[in-house]
Predict the structure of 1-phosphatidylinositol-4-phosphate 5-kinase.
Amino acid sequence: MPPRAASLLQGDRCGHGPGPGPGPGWRVGGELHGEASCSYLPLRKRLSVDGKCPAPRICIWECDGEAGDITCDIVAAPLRRSCSARAMPPPPAPLFRRMMTPPPSRPRPPPTQQVAEEVAATGARRPGETICKGHRSYGLMLNLQLGISYSVGKSSALPFRKLSPSDFDPREKVWTRFPPEGSKLTPPHHSVDFRWKDYCPAVFRHLRKLFGVDPADYMLAICGSDTLRELASPGKSGSCFFVTQDDRFMIKTVKKAEVKVLIRMLRSYYEHVCRYKSTLLTRFYGTHCIKQAGCPKVRFIIMGNFCCSEYKIHRRFDLKGSSHGRTIDKAEQKIDETTTLKDLDLDYAFHLQKFWYEELMKQIQMDCTFLETQGIMDYSLLLGVHFRNDFSMSKMGVPQFNGLPSK
């Protein structure tokens, strides 16, 4: 029976860094270092990378006789030549963090049309309900797209400058009115009259640049001809979730108190993500508010979608490190790749290479310390698992998207 492999995806930055390759060897700068032999390389041919994506990824292996006991390696791009080398110590942590940062020339995700074609070809089910005319959220979506287009277009026309303390001021917000007939600043539209508020626009412009988000791609994903999709709320907050058709960005409605907390901690958050490029914290791209005449204000944040990957995610988990109520109330046969599982539903053991484990735990500790200093206590670790192929899953006796993998 062939070994079962899966790719562990912790957000869209997952696996961008050097680490222990197959066996005791290291792969750094395209060369293999360590006691790796030529005869061993073909056995690790099933890498969770392809020729189009040279970035290394984490690969999970489950071998014969070890069901439920999974080994997790960091693998590099497919090896195209055999080689051997002597043992070499692992690279220092600064190099690891530096390599984990996605390079500016990183290939952009495929266009929406290509994503749709891939989904149709693979039979993947895309979560959410497409927002069309007549949908309850259609008007809100139009307002949101108009506001984002205005804000990003306005900021992009200005020279990029260094941030000043006043940019982080909670009172740093801009109201703009969008009448249906248009104005000197806003275009005419088919929605109702509304006002648009932009919180700390200069700071979020810097964050988008720091996270490698191109302004044109950002506007096209949210404000393009493709509509958004509305997701069912996975939590108890009652918030509405929207996702772009290319799955790169998520939009979440939040309460006034949540906006206040985010803006209050914005300076510390900015400093943290600048210092720790491999942070696991959510990537925030913008905070806004919409006020329609006669309606309550709708506040929302725009953030990165950790589930956006070139690989299909077969299992996703929301982990809080608690056992109280941490299981889903859903029949096993109804569980599929869109189901968000919890702590007690996780029946895998991930065996990481020592260096990767230490770096991962160190980063989690630093992120948790940051959240504690900000008085944040309700947070969780999102985990996505990609199995190499459905054939491997069936060979291991794992139901295809209709239940948890058997131990």
